[in-house]
Amino acid sequence: MPLTKNKNEQAMAMQKLGNIEKIHVLSSFKYVFINAFPKAENKKSFSGQNRWRFSRKTKSLVVFAIIIVMLISIFAFLPKQGKSTLLPQDTATPTASPSSTTTPNITSRPTSGPTPIQVIWQDPKMPSTTPGPFPKAPGVIKSAQTVNSTMWLAVAKNAWAYFQPDVGVNSTTGLPSSGYGSPSFTDWDLGVYIQAVIDAQNLNLTNTDGAWGSSARLEKILTFLETRPLNNTTHYPFWFYQATDGQDWHQDSDSATSPVDVIDTGRLFVALNNLRVFNSSLTSRINNIVLYGQYFNRSNYAALVPSIKTDGLTETSIYAYYIESGFASFWPDILGSVPSTIMNNIFSAGNITTNGVSLPLAAITGDPLLCSVFELNNNDPKLMALANQVYLAHEAYYNATGQYRAFSEGPSLSGDWQYEWVVLPDKGTWVIMDGGSQANISPLIYTKVAFSFLALYNSSFAKNLSVHVEDAIPAPVDGYCEGVDEAGTLFPGVGLNTNGLILDAAAYAVNNGP
User: Fold this and answer.
1) For burial by CB atoms within 10 Å, which of 131, 148, 149, 303 has the most?
2) 220-249 residue pLDDT tens
3) Thinking of the domain 8-512, which architecture would CATH place it in?
4) Phi, psi of 424 (to 5 degrees)
5) For 16-51, what is the HEC assignment?
6) Which of 225, 146, 186 shows the shortest CA–CA distance to 42?
């Protein structure tokens, strides 16, 4: 079972996977998201996603309806201007997993001078349909005389705004939404939310007590995990759940073709392990959910471990490294050495050079790489070296072209999940996959990646990159939006993955910065 990204992407991906040869995905992981999702109905999970969960059919329909309405409004009331092109983005791949009685196979799933900003998607909450730039005061990063903990706390506060009740969290159930008006979430999203609560508490953005303090938030999530309905056939979680009532979101879950989404599961395990460290009093409950679920009328995750190990030993994808690390944190005796093996595989896969920077010839993109750096304990020196080379590749690209870029993944106006791969074996560097096909479109400069580079390296380039994005996007009233593409087109939707990773970055900078 190849590890794939999660969410909506996978449903479509799973169906499409049937026609795809088992290309060594991760390579499998690399192929993870890529070939698995059909356009117009897909989206994330090797969650993460972790991390817009646009892929879902409903999401796609809603977004396209919004786009049509907004375009009609713009063209009807504004003078005729240059046409704005809808930028298609990539879909995620499906995740495979075994049932409680069957052992699954793991499958991977796995752009200089300022440009005028155009808005290609209009968030319903935004009062104006007029293309940007948006009038606003200088952003936190641009205004900061020094990049220090005070600045990072202000950035974190802006990102935490997304996780407030009736914004990104349902005020009745306490369950998160993936963003952009989506009514559902996956286990990848739960992992992002748990980590966001941990980061917020560590940064003193929330109290322990109170109706929306960290304790109450985490209690709602653990109670959900202990009592949520499971698939009667597989006895594993449904692919998607409704944030409004915690029930199965049939519209997307019914499209799943594998018993469990391993990628979403692995991302959730990373967060649950960090939660055990954050609050040891919750250890027993977490272990009962993950390690001993079969004894508490929960899922038998232990049945997945043998194939997780077998498939992981040959993987060369950063996605595989991150997800396998989540499983290894609960089964260290069996899987403890697998993440380091994957990292060794990555560095042994050969090299490819872009603008003078050498990178491993392995599947590499922003979200799983940065999540690994910020969320995993006792980071492998090779992981940190890989992150540094990826950063240097971005800086070298700017030095060679005068164009900023910050590669990762996110929702697409095409209805798919777009993957921007810094490296993709067999395709080279700076590859964009959208709906299972390589796309010749302007890459999105992701806010979450720009801010993460600044948190890690605090360099002039990283700050200038962050300010470039910060200047282009709307004020983060309900959290930061996805970003702006290299052609100057704004994609202002606000979602869970972006703000979760920005919280990660801010917490890392506060704890490790000067």
Assistant:
1) 303
2) 999 999 999 999 999 999 999 999 999 999
3) Alpha/alpha barrel (1.50)
4) -140, 110
5) HHCCCCCCCECEHHHHHHHCCCCCCCCCCECCCCCC
6) 186
